[in-house]
């Protein structure tokens, strides 16, 4: 695809070589990590509007839904969600309350632990995620194609040399 071969127009050229030998201060691994963060940020920025349009939730609420979608039907404890997403528990409580009001998650007390709360997706949330998944996946592909150019790919391959050789899937 031509868009992937061209240098992304909205990304500045990377100083030095992708291996970190261009006289910069950062070693190659840290430079590759920063490039990965920049690409992720660009995808998140584009995804925000599509998430709002297709699911009518915030990006942070969407991350909670995605995390829960990959879990067993019983859901996850609030503390585990906060840890996995790197979010403060107070902020997570507000976001889960918003999702619960929208009918997308259910909260339940953890048996044997009066302070523990588990959160699980509702059938409504599972249905909406299924319906929106194609548009969301395409948004991610398009955003990555715009921001991941040759320098970024080279830096990531230097960070994880076997990345291109690893078979995908189980």
Automatic annotation (TrEMBL):
Residues 1-20 are annotated as: Disordered. SMART domains: HTH_MARR. It holds the Pfam family MarR_2. PROSITE patterns: HTH_MARR_2. SUPFAM superfamilies: Winged helix' DNA-binding domain. Gene3D superfamilies: Winged helix-like DNA-binding domain superfamily/Winged helix DNA-binding domain (1.10.10.10). InterPro entries: HTH_MarR-typ, MarR/SlyA-like, WH-like_DNA-bd_sf, WH_DNA-bd_sf. Residues 29-165 form the HTH marR-type domain. This is MarR family transcriptional regulator.
């Amino acid at each position: 695809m031509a868009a992937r071969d061209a240098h992304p127009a909205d990304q500045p050229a990377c100083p030095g070589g992708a291996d970190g030998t261009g006289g910069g201060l950062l070693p190659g691994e840290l430079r590759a990590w920063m490039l990965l963060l920049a690409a992720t940020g660009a995808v998140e920025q584009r995804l925000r509007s599509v998430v709002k349009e297709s699911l009518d939730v915030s990006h942070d609420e969407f991350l909670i839904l995605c995390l829960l979608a990959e879990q067993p039907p019983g859901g996850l404890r609030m503390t585990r969600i906060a840890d996995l997403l790197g979010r403060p528990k107070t902020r997570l409580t507000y976001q889960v309350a918003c999702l619960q009001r929208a009918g997308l998650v259910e909260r339940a007390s953890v048996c044997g632990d009066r302070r523990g709360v588990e959160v699980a997706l509702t059938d409504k949330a599972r249905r909406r995620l299924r319906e929106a998944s194609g548009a969301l996946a395409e948004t991610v592909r398009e955003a990555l194609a715009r921001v991941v150019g040759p320098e970024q790919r080279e830096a990531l391959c230097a960070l994880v040399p076997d990345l291109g050789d690893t078979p995908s899937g189980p």
